């Protein structure tokens, strides 16, 4: 056989193996296809959900839900969404309560008119193991989980998920999330960039994080000024809250089980004045808040003796829906080691002190690597206030030598002001969402969708209506 014939045979073999791999992947993804969710309205897009095993030896598996774009999914980007906690569900919170295609209402699902899958293929990941439907067969896998383990698992998940869905391999990929995802998202993006140096697998085009924890003391200590400026605490209490025991000191002591008498006194007074009848995640809201908003409770610890809990509605639509057997069957989901699906994990033992490790420096490395970054803030959130996030973004821009390319100004959603924004070097952006709570897409869905669309397109937020 001649050299030319050998090359021809080799090429044919390679094409055959590639085709075989594609067929195998199609079979894998087809097994995860959702025929129809119980009670859902008729839609024209495909849905998938199931498991990706990130550790074969210990049988650690992460659960995902994919809602493909409503129109022309093949030409739309892939967006990974991560909720925070740490330990709260991206499916229950993100997909079914914030920016997914449906929201539970009684025994049925209603269409979310501002779903983000209008603009992208939305992939929701329940991470780390022990969260939502994600599981491990050994309970020891839920102990000592930290940011490093979570980031690595998320990377492995994506690597293996692309084997199921190879049609997304070269697609533009964005990572988004909120709250403690201010740790998850930058850490995962950093690993992806490092992995790409040798394998060039991920076509990462940007990250967006909402009301994120990025720098412990700045984020947490901005709460005192927020309380005071919104009339939630008095002048003397503001002075105590900034002089004798700031919030980062209190949280640090709380996590270590060593709350001082001074901090106890200060926090008791703050709690009395702010009132347990005001929701800290949306200080203007005067209606019942679904328990899905409890993802923030882990970055907002409150001793029980202070009487502070997250306001929870009597009926929680999402929890009821995802605990239905027919729903779990349709989702290809199963409960392992627990009898009930919950918004935030009851079995996960996460290293809470990781919250003190800054991620704003990782955000800086992403910007230097050419990855666009959007930090956005619901302006009614006092848990991770906009003032802290704005300070961190501005400081980072100065450290990187980025000049202002879009001066601080309003942006519009429809005929109303959607919020305010500032952009540095056309790569690092900050935006507020007017009237939004800690969970922006839940509280201001229309404005959140305008923000999301501009982010995906690399466009400035609208400066006119």
TrEMBL record:
It comes from the Eukaryota. SUPFAM superfamilies: alpha/beta-Hydrolases. Keywords: Carboxypeptidase, Hydrolase, Protease, Secreted, Signal. Its main location: secreted. InterPro entries: AB_hydrolase_fold, Peptidase_S10, Ser_caboxypep_ser_AS. It is found in: Secreted. It is an enzyme of class 3 (hydrolase). The keyword Hydrolase applies. Its EC number is 3.4.16.-. Pfam families: Peptidase_S10. Residues 1-25 form the signal peptide. Belongs to the peptidase S10 family. This is Carboxypeptidase. It comes from Camelina sativa (False flax).
């Amino acid at each position: 056989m001649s050299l030319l014939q050998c090359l021809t045979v080799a090429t044919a073999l390679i094409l055959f193996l590639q085709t075989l791999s594609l067929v195998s992947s199609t079979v894998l993804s087809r097994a995860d296809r959702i025929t129809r969710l119980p009670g859902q309205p008729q839609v024209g897009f495909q849905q998938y959900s199931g498991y990706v095993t990130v550790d074969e030896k210990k049988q650690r598996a992460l659960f995902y839900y994919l809602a493909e774009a409503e129109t022309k999914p093949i030409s739309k980007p892939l967006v990974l969404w991560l909720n925070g906690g740490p330990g709260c569900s991206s499916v229950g919170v993100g997909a079914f309560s914030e920016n997914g295609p449906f929201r539970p209402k009684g025994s049925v699902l209603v269409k979310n008119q501002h779903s983000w899958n209008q603009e992208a293929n939305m992939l929701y990941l329940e991470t780390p193991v022990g969260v939502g439907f994600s599981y491990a067969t050994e309970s020891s896998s839920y102990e000592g989980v930290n940011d490093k383990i979570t980031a690595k698992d998320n990377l492995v998940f994506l690597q293996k998920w692309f084997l199921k869905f190879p049609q997304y391999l070269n697609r533009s990929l964005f990572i988004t999330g909120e709250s403690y995802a201010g740790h998850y998202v930058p850490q995962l993006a950093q690993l992806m960039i490092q992995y790409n140096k040798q394998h060039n697998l991920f076509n990462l085009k940007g990250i967006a994080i909402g009301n994120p924890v990025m720098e412990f003391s700045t984020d947490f200590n901005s709460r005192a000024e927020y309380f005071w400026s919104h009339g939630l605490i008095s002048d003397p209490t503001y002075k105590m809250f900034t002089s004798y025991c700031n919030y980062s000191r209190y949280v640090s002591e709380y996590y270590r089980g060593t709350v001082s008498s001074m901090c106890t006194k200060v926090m008791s007074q703050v709690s009395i004045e702010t009132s347990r009848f005001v929701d800290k995640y949306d200080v203007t809201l005067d209606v019942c808040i679904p328990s899905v908003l409890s993802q923030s409770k882990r970055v907002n610890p409150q001793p029980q003796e202070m009487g502070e809990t997250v306001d929870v509605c009597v009926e929680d639509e999402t929890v009821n829906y995802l605990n239905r057997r027919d729903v779990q069957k349709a989702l290809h989901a199963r409960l392992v080691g627990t009898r009930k699906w919950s918004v935030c994990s009851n079995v996960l033992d996460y290293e809470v002190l990781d919250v003190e490790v800054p991620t704003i420096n990782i955000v800086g490395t992403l910007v230097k690597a050419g990855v666009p970054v959007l930090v956005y803030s619901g302006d009614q959130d006092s848990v991770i206030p906009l003032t802290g996030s704005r300070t961190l973004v501005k400081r980072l821009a100065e450290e990187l030598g980025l000049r202002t390319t879009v001066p601080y100004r309003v942006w519009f959603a429809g005929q109303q002001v959607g919020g305010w924004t500032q952009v540095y070097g056309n790569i690092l952006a900050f935006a507020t969402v007017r009237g939004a709570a800690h969970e922006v897409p839940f509280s201001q869905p229309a404005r959140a969708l305008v923000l999301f669309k501009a982010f995906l397109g690399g466009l400035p937020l609208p400066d006119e209506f």
